[in-house]
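Question (not urgent): is this output format expected?
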Amino acid sequence: MAKYRSGDKVSLTIQQETEEGYILSDGSTQIMLKTDQQLKLGDQVEVFLYHDQKNQLIATDQIPTVSFSAFDWAEVVRVHTTLGVFVDIGSNIEVLVSTDDLPQHMTAWPIVGDQLYVTLKRDKKDRLLAQPVKESDFEDNWDRAPESLFNQDIKGRVFRSGKEGAVIISEDGYRGFIHYTERKKEPRVGEWFEGRVIEVKQDGTLNVSLLPRKQEARLNDADMILTYLKENNGEMSLDNQSDPEEIQKVFGISKSAFKRAIGKLYKDRLIKQAEGKTYLILNDQDQQWKSGIKS
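Got this back:
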């Protein structure tokens, strides 16, 4: 086995200065240190060892906060469909997170810019890897969420994602769960999210929803329907009696959500319905808009 391995943190002596940096030595082994700092020959320096893109073992004096016994967030910098994703653990040191440690479906993989909470490990070939932390590794360190968080907005990152739902870490260190019924699509591991607290459990963990509040959803859906009407000459072949599948096909929402949005537009006197259709009620400005379309 090699005397020094990628991922080691060691103290070495500055032996020689070169154009690229400094040569470090323990008396028998020499390792290149690339640094912008001015160092003195003969000084001892603590460094982190890793393999560069040429597979050469080199040193950095910028010690990563991630180690074999310490966890930290690392940003995804590259995605490789067959190998996994590469994360920057600091000082532009890219380390692979293997496909074995990622979700089965690539749609739930992190993308560039997402962040994973990782520690370091070595594989059977002694290569340095980053490994997402398991929930059991720090389940005793969750902060207990106060009851006052109920119905409050919350932000954080997706820690684990699966068919039944996603485990999240809030920016304040609370543990939360997003049930699959409380999201429109499966979130990515490492994705930044904004949601709302729908339950504060007795153990201080949270249930979180990524769906908008009904009032917000109604406003968003109403705007979507209004835009559709304006883009389709002020009418559509849907009304409150339409088949749910047709509504879902056109707008991607449920019939109940459609009816709530229609109700708002009707209350605002923006639409009317007749003979299975919905029509936009045109004001003077809309009349000019419609005339412009016809011309």
